């Protein structure tokens, strides 16, 4: 059963954590099931729409972003919209497998059935090195205390 708008704080948090869990599978076909077949996406400087484009984008993303681990937190919500703050870490296959962290924000819009019809993402990458990692192997991303300076 899909959580439908209008969202409350509780239902918006459920949507955010479900998305976090799906993205941490790093399986493009599974992740794409969370979006309307005609969903509009902007990811940084890329604009596209639809399931096949989402899957192709995610395949390319996770070919480059090795050892990907993500945490999402609810930033704001209203009616059928949710804003999310996120942090993810990865090894950049196009930059000598250097560790990086992306800091970003997303805004999501849902239809009345609770299916996402628009996803807009802005993010910035920072090289962190092994010593700067939060989500080391065996660490639950939910257990990491993210300080105010990173919010």
> From N to C, what is the helix and strand string?
HHEEHEEEE
> Structural class of the secondary elements?
alpha+beta
What fraction of residues sit in β-strands?
35-45%
Q: What general form does the structure show?
A: globular
Number of helices: 3
Distance between the termini: 32 Å
Overall pLDDT level: 97
Low-confidence stretches: none
Strand count, sense and closure of the main sheet? Answer: 6 strands, mixed
Helix percent reads 10-25%
- Global Rg: 15 Å
Sequence of strands across the biggest β-sheet: 2-1-6-5-4-3
The overall strand count is 6
Summarize this entry quickly.
The protein has 151 residues and is of the alpha+beta class. The protein has helices at 9-23, 28-32, 51-64; strands spanning 35-43, 46-49, 65-78, 81-92, 98-110, 116-127.
Molecular structure report:
It is a single chain. The chain is an alpha+beta fold and 151 residues long. Helices cover 23% and strands 42% of the residues. It has 3 helices and 6 strands; from the N terminus they run H-H-E-E-H-E-E-E-E. The protein has a 6-stranded mixed β-sheet with strand order 2-1-6-5-4-3. The longest helix is centred in the N-terminal third of the chain and has 15 residues, at 9-23. The N and C termini lie far apart (32 Å). The mean pLDDT is 97.
Task: Give the SSE map.
Elements lengths: L8 H15 L4 H5 L2 E9 L2 E4 L1 H14 E14 L2 E12 L5 E13 L5 E12 L24
Parallel strand pairs: 1-6
Antiparallel strand pairs: 1-2, 3-4, 4-5, 5-6
